[in-house]
Design a protein that fits this description.
Strand content: 35-45%
Radius of gyration: 15 Å
Length: about 130
């Protein structure tokens, strides 16, 4: 039996990714623990506020930002979600790259994420962000 106040792993993941798609910083923040940390492709950790700032910047250069083809699995300590990140870059080119999110969850909040991205296909975002 689960506590009605704690969302299921699927609900938590869906809420987080819907918030990112909508540019809802407060909605995303509500899913993430105060001491949250994210590491992309083994890089430097990002805390919650850095991720929120990055997501805002990402949405500013990617129109029609959305996730497609989600695949979800619950783990003993959280969840794994694979999806395609999609949208249109400022030069009009299509953005579409694979991402895998491995999340750790405690008391209904995401505490840590290891995210793996197809960086060559995401290079257009980095170029647009640096322009």
């Amino acid at each position: 039996m689960t506590d009605d106040k704690v969302p299921s792993m699927q609900d938590l993941a869906d809420t987080l990714f819907r918030a990112f798609e909508a540019g809802d910083a407060e909605g995303a923040r509500a899913c993430l623990a105060d001491d949250f940390a994210l590491v992309q492709n083994g890089g430097r950790p990002m805390d919650r506020e850095t991720l929120i700032t990055f997501a805002r910047a990402f949405r500013s250069v990617v129109s029609g930002y959305r996730y497609e083809k989600p695949q979800f699995s619950t783990t003993d300590s959280g969840f794994v979600r694979e999806h395609e990140v999609c949208g249109t870059l400022p030069d009009g080119s299509e953005l579409r790259f694979a991402a895998c999110v491995v999340a750790e969850v405690t008391d209904g909040k995401i505490t840590a994420v290891r995210e793996y991205l197809d960086t060559p296909k995401a290079a257009g975002v980095a170029k647009a962000l640096s322009a």
